[in-house]
Amino acid sequence: MDKDTDVLISDSSRNYLVVIWQLLTDSPYKKCSLVLGLGVILITVITLVIVFTHQSTGPSDDICPATPLVTFGYNPHGADGPLHWSHLAPETRCCAGSIQSPIDIKTQSLYCRGFSAITYQGSPTGALNGSISSTGQGAVLAFSKQHQLVTGVLPEVTTDYVLDSMHFHCPSEHHVDGKPMSGELHLVHYKKQYSSFGASVAKQDGLAVIGIFLEEGSSSNNSAFNSFAEGVQKLNDNRTGISVTLDPRQLLPTGGKFYTYFGSLTTPSCSESVRWIVMQKPIITTQEKVAILRTLKVKDAAHLSDFGNARPLQALSSRRVDSNTYHWKIAALNNKGTRK
After folding, report:
1. 3-class SS at 268?
2. Helix, strand, or coil here: 305?
3. CATH architecture of 64-334
4. Distance (Å, rounded) from C-alpha 31 to C-alpha 49?
């Protein structure tokens, strides 16, 4: 070890390295010892890099709590618009985080996993009671706490999550291969262990949200979505606390195929505590039904159609998006152009 190197290393570290160096160089098997030592050092460095990278792109330890009193908007030029959400309050700092939602889902970059279709436990059966109200930037249907719908079949989780509420965004927040849809429903769940949505927001594994696209067609045959749209229409008549009864299970498209990744809430506080499950198949509804959602009155006597209520896309960064579908595009990439 030379003098310059010696200056840069603390005494304790220097002594430790000197001992190792002497053991290696004094050994009768000097070459083998040097190769072995360098190999150990290389493996250690690679391991540290992998651990550091995983930690830097995974869930943050600083997760923002719920902020029900924060006023925000979607006007891209407004002082409370999406570009300024992270500065609205100390609790909204997560809106500037590195694992935010929504994202553009690129089907050629998916990882195929053997996830099961999303199902709920058998009880309660049938429709659930709920109350729909305006949030100032949309509408939320809060389900009755008396009959909680629970699922334990979610990707990357091993415990029960409780369905808390549902709401919508127009246009859709998530895109697929750069393309948005007419709208997107969000079924919001919290981890049963944490007892409530508010207590789960600031937990790394606290929330799971199922996103369901809305696509315009010639008919609207999903009775659960029609009931939700009718409730939103009643809100347009300046009423609050509209009673709505529907079966959320009917909102899940047939086939059970979905995309999944780890991200955040798409409204302040933007807490990075959400396991996202975005269903591949949309609900088909009519332009008239979508118009009911888009003309909902929001704050300042405006209509949602003025700016929509979809947050701009966020960077995927180093995150991966999984799917429980073996897309032929993925097969083509993985098999050098051979379609399976």
Report:
1. coil
2. helix
3. Roll (3.10)
4. 27
Cross-strand pairs, 244: 130
Q: Enumerate the β-bridge partners of residue 260.
A: 277, 322
Comparing 68-77, 112-121, 157-166, 233-242, the range with the smallest average pLDDT is 233-242
Q: How far from 94 is each of 37, 69, 267, CA to CA, in Å? A: 43, 16, 10
Cis peptide preceding 171, ω within 30 of 0 = yes
Determine if the peptide bond prior to 65 is cis (ω within 30°): no
Strand partners, 140: 133, 167
Helix axes 223-235, 287-294, angle to 10 degrees: 40
Residue type, 219: S
Q: Is the pLDDT of residue 246 over 80?
A: yes
Domain ranges of the chain: 3-55, 64-334
The answer for residues whose C-beta is within 8 angstroms of residue 145's C-beta and 6 or more apart is none
Give me the amino acid identity at 234: K
What is the DSSP-derived secondary structure letter of residue 94? G
Number of H helices, E strands in the chain: 7, 14
Interval 282-295: pLDDT, tens: 999 999 999 999 99
Q: Say if residues 293 and 170 touch (Cβ distance below 8 Å).
A: yes
Compute the distance between CA of residue 169 and CA of residue 171 in angstroms, rounded to an integer. 6
The tokens for 316 are: 């995927």
- Report d(CA 244, CA 229) in Å as an integer: 10
Residue 173 near residue 135, CB atoms below 8 Å:
no
Report pLDDT digits (tens) over 13-56: 455 444 444 554 555 545 544 544 555 455 444 444 343 343 33
Distances (CA, A) of 201 to 131, 205, 209, 318: 22, 9, 12, 23
